[in-house]
Amino acid sequence: MVTKIDLVGYEEFKRYVETLDSKASKAIFYFSGTKLADGTSWCPDCVEAEPIVKTFMNELKKDLIFGYVDVGDRPSWKSATCPFRTDPRLKLMVIPTIIVWKGVQRLEGTQCTKVDLLQMLVEDEE
Fold first, then answer.
1. Catalytic annotation present for 112
2. Domain segments of the chain: what residues?
3. pLDDT tens digits, the chain, 126 residues: what are they?
4. 64 and 25 in contact (C-beta within 8 Å)?
5. 2-122: CATH number
6. From 7, 27, 28, 46, the catalytic residue
7. Pick from 71, 115, 117: which is nearest to 96 by CA?
8. Contact at 8 Å (CB) between 84 and 71?
9. Strand 26-32 relative to strand 64-70, pairing
10. From CA 4, how far away is CA 27, in angstroms rounded?
């Protein structure tokens, strides 16, 4: 069963990952730009990827945590000091980005729209 959470901003993300137990379910985070009044992100690539990622996660029958992380508005994201860019655990360069927490797997940009790559990302490493 996929547990879905929404996190807004770096501080909320940071607080949440500090609560993750190493024995807990696998955690996957999807980083996207803030939503505009119409409910879509300011980031066009995020707008394209989000419905694909959400549909995939809704159909998935695995025990994992799926976190949607709002990285902020365009100026905040573009800043060289954006904590999502500078955090050594993340080192985000583009959005959307999907990462497996405490893993090395990640999808960036248009890779996030590829269902076969999403499937490989969630497969167990056993």
1. no
2. 2-122
3. 888 999 999 999 999 998 887 666 789 999 999 999 999 999 999 999 999 999 999 898 888 899 999 999 999 999 999 999 999 999 999 999 999 988 888 999 999 999 999 999 888 654
4. yes
5. 3.40.30.10
6. 46
7. 71
8. yes
9. parallel
10. 10
Residue among 7, 28, 43, 53 flagged as catalytic: 43
Beta strands in 15-105 (DSSP E): 26-32, 64-70, 97-100
46 among known catalytic residues = yes
* Torsional sign, CA 74, 75, 79, 81: negative
44-59 and 115-122 helices, crossing angle to 10°: 60
Question: DSSP readout, 49-63?
Answer: HHHHHHHHHHH--S-
Q: What is the pTM of this model?
A: 0.92
